[in-house]
Write a structure and sequence with these properties.
Length: 305
């Protein structure tokens, strides 16, 4: 049986990945730090509460599990802080330890989460093999540096690896301070939503699709960087309007009345040829369906409260 270590198992992507891993007959060793997420008990799902920033804890755990695969999502991701936080350096250090311990214990295939912030955003459309890497933040620089280290280490250790560069995700369990849940939360409370001009073009992918894409990448033999995205450009204004229309609340949306995100690039979209043609994966959700399911989830959360 394939045995996978899943870091960040209680995080945004990690929790959604579990079902896909179980469907593919993995024995899933799910690592979490604070709170174990509510999840149906499965014989092939083993939870480990641990601090993987602690090198001794990490080493002991990897010695015990002897995993054949690793899917690494854990990182510092507090909205508004992760771009510049020194925590990024700690996670580079911990991630280097992870890949070393994984290889030392017979690991064969590792997939780690990167970011679109590694690219030079002046290029707009991002191709894994052609677009220059020129991160403008500590977060992007740390991810990009780790990718380079893992690439060269994997070659020396005869380890198969892939690096999934994430673009813009949304869906259930997303941090409420991010774009989609903040719009939904504000409009559900029937309050005015102050937005920037909304003309920026982005690449949005529903979280279930993102989790599915990562597991498909893990299952494949594709190596190196792969964009995890839809490949479909959409204006932020249109995303907000779809949400507003589902709630019949366009009257509460005010574009051009917030300075948030005005310094971001006008266009940031992924080329997904590697994901579609080499990995053999395509999304199951379009924007309308994904936002609809996300809205239903947030409505349920509101009822619980």
């Amino acid at each position: 049986m394939k045995r996978v270590i899943l870091t960040g198992a209680n995080g945004f992507i990690g929790r959604h990945s579990i079902s896909y891993l179980l469907e593919r007959n993995y024995e899933v060793h799910a690592l979490f730090y604070n709170h174990k997420p509510e999840f149906k008990e499965e014989s092939n799902l083993i939870w480990h509460k641990c601090d993987i920033l602690d090198s001794s804890v990490q080493e002991k755990l990897f010695d015990e599990i002897n995993a054949s695969h690793m899917l690494h999502f854990a990182w510092y991701t507090v909205p508004g802080k992760y771009w510049t936080s020194i925590e990024n350096l700690r996670w580079v250090q911990a991630s280097i330890g992870l890949i070393i311990n994984f290889a030392k214990n017979g690991g064969r295939r590792a997939v780690m989460a990167g970011t679109c912030a590694e690219y030079d955003w002046d290029y707009g459309r991002c191709f894994e093999k052609d677009t220059p890497l020129n991160p403008k933040s500590l977060y992007g620089a740390c991810k990009n540096s780790l990718a380079n280290i893992v690439k060269h280490f994997s070659a020396e250790a005869n380890l198969s690896y892939a690096w999934g560069r994430i673009f813009y995700l949304y869906g259930p369990y997303e941090n409420p301070d991010r774009l989609v849940p903040s719009v939904m939360g504000t409009l559900l409370k029937k309050e005015v939503m102050q937005c920037a001009h909304g003309d920026q073009i982005r690449d949005f992918l529903y979280i279930e699709d993102a989790a599915s894409a990562f597991v498909s990448l893990l299952e494949s033999n594709v190596t190196g960087a792969v964009n995890i995205a839809s490949g479909n450009p959409v204006a932020i204004r249109d995303v907000v309007n779809v949400i507003a229309d589902k709630l019949d609340r366009r009257d509460l949306v005010r574009f051009g009345e917030s300075t948030d995100a005005l310094n971001g690039p006008k266009l940031l979209v992924a080329d997904v040829e590697r994901l579609n043609n080499e990995v053999g994966w395509k999304p199951s959700y379009d924007l309308d369906r994904g936002l609809g399911q996300t809205l239903d989830w947030w409505k349920d959360q509101k009822k619980v409260k």
